[in-house]
Amino acid sequence: xxxxxxxxxxCLKEIRRAENYSWMDIVTIHKDKLPNYEEKIKTFYEExxxxxxxxxxxxxxSGYFDVRDKDDKWIRISMEKGDMITLPAGIYxxxxxxxxxxxxxxxxxxxxxxWTAYNRPADDFPARKQYIKFLANxxx
Length: 140
Fold this sequence. Notes:
By secondary structure, the chain is of the alpha+beta class. The protein contains three helices and eight strands. Strands 1, 3, 4, 5, 6 and 7 form a six-stranded antiparallel beta sheet that branches. Strands 2-8 form a two-stranded antiparallel ribbon. It is globular, with a radius of gyration of 15 Å. It starts with 9 loop residues before the first helix and ends with a helix.
């Protein structure tokens, strides 16, 4: 994606239309830009899940999303300018900055945003059970 021209990027516009991403905002994660920076960084790094998909588009900077594979082992996903990721509802994950300590990201949602993170263990939620079922089907 064209992060330098995200406001007018036709590819981003088409993704938002096709996936029904009707809400967005932009967050800058840096000690001089994010209120309660230290607390937020710790919260982002706590292993958690959401009941809705988490969609992030990196506009500047870089960082890592860590996700669990089907065997519960960590997979680190490097994210940099122009990258977009969709983490499905129910997947355990965490986020951290890299050595540059800076990222500016677009957060996208279907409908109104839901910010609630459920720290592990959170296995009783229907979203988690549905995700586990998806993994089991993919393994076959």
